[in-house]
Design a protein that fits this description.
The protein has one domain: Alpha-Beta Plaits, CATH 3.30.70.100. 40% of the residues lie in helices and 32% in strands. The chain has a four-stranded antiparallel β-sheet with strand order 2-3-1-4.
Length: 94
């Protein structure tokens, strides 16, 4: 059963360029992952420093394999340090 993953981050203007580079690295790696189906990025209108990524995965297992992979964890740790807080994740199914 396909699942949707909602990923929320807060972006500060002073680190937006560096964060953009890291997020692009994650995106490239994500495209290579078994079970990854699609993803979209949204910028919140009423809170310009907040963004939401909605990614679709074939299964929770595929997502868990990706979210726990060493390559992803390494980049995500840097992202969280850069934004000063943990990225929020929520998993939904239809």
């Amino acid at each position: 059963m396909a699942v949707k993953i909602f990923i929320k981050r807060k972006v500060q203007t002073d680190n937006a360029a560096q964060l953009s580079i890291l997020l692009k690295k994650l995106r490239v790696l994500t495209l290579e992952q078994p079970g990854y189906l699609s993803g979209e990025t949204f910028n919140r209108i009423d809170k310009p420093n907040e963004c939401m990524v909605i990614s679709t995965w074939r299964s929770v297992e595929d997502w868990n394999n990706w979210v726990n992979s060493p390559k992803r964890t390494e980049i995500q740790t840097v992202i969280d340090q850069l934004i000063g807080e943990d990225t929020e994740y929520a998993i939904y199914s239809a």
